From TrEMBL:
It holds the Pfam family Gate. Keywords: Membrane, Transmembrane, Transmembrane helix. InterPro entries: Gate_dom, Spore_IM_YlbJ. It comes from the Bacteria. The chain crosses the membrane at residues 6-26, 78-99, 120-141, 147-168, 206-228, 234-254, 286-303, 324-342, 378-395. Residues 42-138, 219-313 form the Nucleoside transporter/FeoB GTPase Gate domain. This is Sporulation integral membrane protein YlbJ.
Length: 402
């Protein structure tokens, strides 16, 4: 009976979505183009180098080296092996869903257990500095000082979330040895060498696999970006998003947040970019309220990102619900940190000559803008060349095995 109910619900939702596309074809097309532009120009070219690099570092044993070095730090803090440091760092630098992809690869190589992989996925998927500083702070709010506050609250909140998740699934943990907590570069090098030697693939095949695996993942990411861009637009047109927003208005009123932010908040739950853009246009007073909501949706990741993560981990035995619970926790922690740090990191800095501060001088601001403009100009070219390289690799392999 339960399975029959699921079948009915899935079929009904899909049919309803199909009818909305038929009723609003022009709006669906515009939303689809918006999503594919974002993926084509920015997401694909910005994430591809990190994905390929991560695959190569895993194959050459560098991640194993980092695992031995950082074991004394990662175990006490997050209750995960030292190799988790690689997923955490790469997740912060390149943005979601890099942390999920690396966590799955570590699980496939048996470098982490199932419960350790679930802890990793829970806190290694963060927004990239490019998105926080370039897109949100400068692009939407036109205020580079805001980027420092959002970034610190986001990454510090992510670390606190990881510490909280260390208690998840403790009954499933297996005994491990910390090698008496001794730091040993020699042991780390030996572990790296052993990992590289055990990988019998030639260098050409390793490079080819890294490119192909990265492109396959990014194609999937692009599909979800387009899907949720259209879905969010359709839900707004049929009045479902405004209806849900009216419910959240009561919640916002109880926690002393302006009810005008309810609709942008709902949009942000589906897609961070659209939600942050709508919040920036509201001109809410006090401004702190807008920053709190943006911090929450950054920590929550949005259903679009969560769907990407769910798709990536679906081929493993990693469960989704710890990640989802951690997203709610991260959103709450980041919002609380925003309230605490708003005055020292944002208001008080208005009385300081920001040109003297390296994190906020005009040169730094221009760097973020230039990166975004460069990606928009050469991003499509990188995407086309990448697909061309992938086609050549697949063609040569198919020809070789005939």
């Amino acid at each position: 009976m339960k399975q029959l109910l699921k079948t009915f619900i899935f079929a009904a939702v899909t049919i309803f979505f199909a009818f909305t596309l038929i009723k609003f074809p022009n709006d669906a097309l515009e939303a689809s183009i918006r999503g594919i532009d974002m993926w084509w120009e920015v997401v694909f070219p910005s994430l591809l180098p990190f994905f390929i690099t991560a695959e190569l570092l895993l194959s050459f044993g560098v991640v194993k080296f980092l695992g031995v070095v950082f074991e004394p730090i990662m175990r006490p803090l997050f209750n995960v092996p030292g190799v988790g440091s690689f997923a955490w760092i790469m997740g912060m630098v390149s943005g979601y869903p890099t942390g999920a992809k690396i966590s799955v690869r570590l699980r496939e190589q048996n470098q982490v257990t199932q419960v350790e992989a679930e802890r990793l996925v829970a806190f290694t998927n963060a927004s990239s500095p490019l998105f926080i500083f370039g897109a949100i702070s400068i692009g939407f709010f036109h205020d580079p000082k805001l980027g420092v506050l959002l970034a610190i609250c986001h990454y510090l909140g992510n670390a606190i979330t990881g510490i909280c998740m260390r208690f998840y699934g403790r009954k499933k943990d297996k005994p491990y040895q910390m090698n008496n907590g001794k730091f040993s570069i020699k042991r780390a090098f030996l572990a790296m060498h052993e990992t590289r030697v055990n990988d019998k693939r030639p260098i050409g095949e390793i490079l080819g696999d890294a490119v192909l695996n990265s492109i396959k993942t990014l194609v999937m990411v692009g599909g979800f970006i387009i899907l949720f861009s259209v879905l969010n637009k359709m839900l707004f047109l049929i009045g479902l998003t405004p209806f849900i927003a009216t419910i959240f208005q009561s919640v916002f009123h109880l926690i002393y947040l302006p009810i005008e932010l309810a609709l942008p908040f709902i949009s942000g739950l589906f897609e961070i970019t659209l939600g942050a853009n709508l919040i920036s246009k509201e001109n809410i007073d006090p401004f702190l309220a807008s920053v709190i909501v943006v911090s929450f949706i950054l920590g929550f990741n949005g259903f679009s990102i969560q769907a990407q993560v769910a798709s990536i981990i679906s081929k493993s035995n990693i469960q989704f619900y710890p990640y989802f619970l951690a997203r709610i926790l991260h959103g709450i922690i980041a919002s609380l940190l925003t309230i605490i740090l708003y005055k020292p990191l944002y208001l008080d800095r208005k009385n300081i000559n920001i040109e003297d501060m390296p994190v906020s001088n005009p040169a730094t601001e221009n760097n973020w803008i230039n990166i975004l403009l460069t990606l928009e100009q050469i991003g499509p070219l990188i995407t086309i060349l990448s697909f061309g390289i992938a086609f050549i690799i697949l063609y040569r392999r198919q020809k070789k095995y005939k």
